[in-house]
Write a structure and sequence with these properties.
Layout lengths: L2 H25 L13 H27 L7 H24 L27 H16 L3 H30 L1 H9 L9
């Protein structure tokens, strides 16, 4: 099995979907990338660090793929493929469900809708979950310690973005509507009953 080709396809689908969505929104006058823009204080720091790591990590993933670094063999690599494919599916469904409310980072200027239907009925943050799944999938396929540390850091930063930036923004923007939604749907996966 050619893990390098499979990993490159997984990344191409993931980032292809990301940039196609960004391009389609740009044609409508929507600025998708809001990370660190017009922010101050802790929010600016978190979003800027997140933006930097989400540029560095794909480069390290590509280097790991091209060098075929694989300290893990056998089933972990197959599991990585499965996790990566699931990540792509979750991400594409997330983008389609969010429609034009999707942003990278929060925007105080744009008026968006709180999306709670479709995949957002089982995860409040499926796009973030998809990033995590892609990172974990590639890591399992091409495990090396640098990729492990950077993937872990990126996953932690995505979590901090959710907890310290996104959720606070959503409470401020949507108030009770978001708080009710938060009571019903878990941050990453599952419903609260």
């Amino acid at each position: 099995m050619n893990f390098q080709v499979i990993a490159l396809v997984i990344l191409a689908v993931f980032y292809g979907a990301y940039f196609i969505k960004m391009f389609m929104q740009k044609k409508k006058g929507i600025k998708t990338d809001q990370l660190g823009k017009g922010k101050t204080g802790l929010v600016k720091v978190i979003e800027t660090i997140l933006k930097i790591i989400t540029f560095i990590l794909p480069a390290v993933e590509l280097i790991s793929i091209l060098l075929n670094t694989a300290l893990l063999q056998g089933w972990p690599r197959i599991l990585g493929i499965c996790i990566g494919i699931i990540g792509n599916i979750v991400f594409i469904i997330s983008l389609k469900t969010m429609k034009d409310s999707w942003r990278a980072g929060v925007s105080n200027k744009d008026k968006t809708k709180l999306v709670t239907k479709g995949i957002y009925a089982i995860s409040r943050n499926p796009a973030f979950l998809a990033f995590d799944l892609i990172y974990i999938g590639i890591l399992l396929m091409f495990f090396n310690w640098i990729l492990f540390l950077l993937s872990l850091f990126a996953i932690v930063m995505l979590h901090i973005q959710i907890v310290k930036v996104e959720e606070e923004f959503l409470v401020t923007t949507f108030g009770e509507e978001y708080l009710d939604y938060k009571k019903k749907v878990n941050r990453y996966l599952g419903k609260n009953f």
